[in-house]
Design goal:
Order of helices and strands: EEHEEHHEEEHEEEEHEEEEH
Strand content: 25-35%
Radius of gyration: 19 Å
Largest sheet: 9 strands, mixed
Structural class: alpha+beta
Bound molecules: pyridoxal-5'-phosphate
Oligomer: single chain
Number of helices: 6
Shape: globular
């Protein structure tokens, strides 16, 4: 397997990143996961825009997007696979231990892993921890994912594939690696960015393509919504058939099924929408 590091392709087994890299020691880094279909990245421009926004939010220098594009192309050519995910990681580089800025240079790693098409529906749980809708990192796709790792472990213990967070004022926010949508009286709703959720790229496309509304939703909407679905780069649009102890028989329901079809058709027609 070949990855991109230090300006060129390297073997995964021998590639080296400093043990003092701030991405490793303090989570001072950002990332993107990009779907790649038959060697071509999906929605890469949107991912690169978000990468730059996340870098600016953290105070990192803007990533060299020409290099990132070249890296993606090179990694995809070196590792042919029908359905893969490119992982772009960009950190503050190596520097002294501690939380001060002062990393030297930056580190860019682009790797590719094989993935598989998601099942049509899945189970989710809610977790008691909250997303902070007003934190310094809110809305940034940073490598500080330990909270998501803990929440996802809780979901797995309960036979679910995703954990959903509310925010500090009791509104529905997002999953550990996905955005959430609910169907109420035939209309599709998703929490606004002010809820603290990530500006998911799949969320933006689904909202645009289905006319979903951004609505403040109390967490308990999950107990009464007619349908619930998740969106993410790796799930695309995925129906929810169980949330905590509530079953949603027949998922995907009709509105979700239509959103799934719309997403599959439109994304196949335009690889960089
Ligand atoms: N929310 C979080 C916390 C995520 O990590 C992700 C994706 O990794 C998403 C939402 C979905 O975003 P996207 O559709 O861009 O993959």
């Amino acid at each position: 397997m070949k990855i991109w590091l230090d300006g060129g392709l390297q073997d995964t087994e021998s590639a080296r990143v400093s043990v003092f890299d701030h991405g490793l020691t303090v989570g001072d880094g950002i990332f993107e996961t990009v779907k790649a279909v038959d060697g071509r990245p999906f929605a890469l421009t949107r991912h690169l825009d978000r990468l730059t926004r996340s870098a600016r939010g953290l105070g990192l220098p803007d990533p060299d997007l020409d290099e990132v594009r070249r890296a993606c192309t090179a990694v995809l050519e070196a590792n042919p696979m029908p359905l893969g995910r490119l992982r772009i990681t960009y950190t503050g580089g190596h520097g002294p231990l501690g939380s001060d800025r002062g990393g030297h240079g930056t580190t860019l790693v682009v790797a590719l892993g094989e993935t598989s098409r998601r099942p049509d529906s899945t189970a989710v749980v809610t977790v008691p921890w909250t997303r902070n809708e007003r934190g310094a990192l809110t809305g940034l796709k940073t490598t500080s994912y330990a909270e998501n790792v803990v929440a996802l472990a809780r979901a797995r213990e309960r036979g679910a594939s995703e954990a959903l967070f509310g925010n500090t004022v009791g509104q529905l926010c997002e999953g550990t690696g996905s955005n959430v949508f609910v169907v109420l009286d035939g209309e599709i709703h998703t929490p606004p960015l002010a809820s603290g959720c990530l500006a998911g790229i799949t969320r933006a496309l689904v909202t645009e393509w289905t006319g979903a509304k951004e609505t403040d939703l109390p967490l308990d909407v999950l107990q009464r919504a007619d349908e619930i679905f998740l969106t993410s780069t790796l799930r695309d649009v995925q129906a929810v058939h169980r949330v905590d102890d509530r079953e949603l028989p027949g998922a995907p329901g009709p509105v979700t099924a239509k959103a799934m079809r719309t997403f599959d058709e439109r994304s196949a027609a335009d690889l960089d929408p």
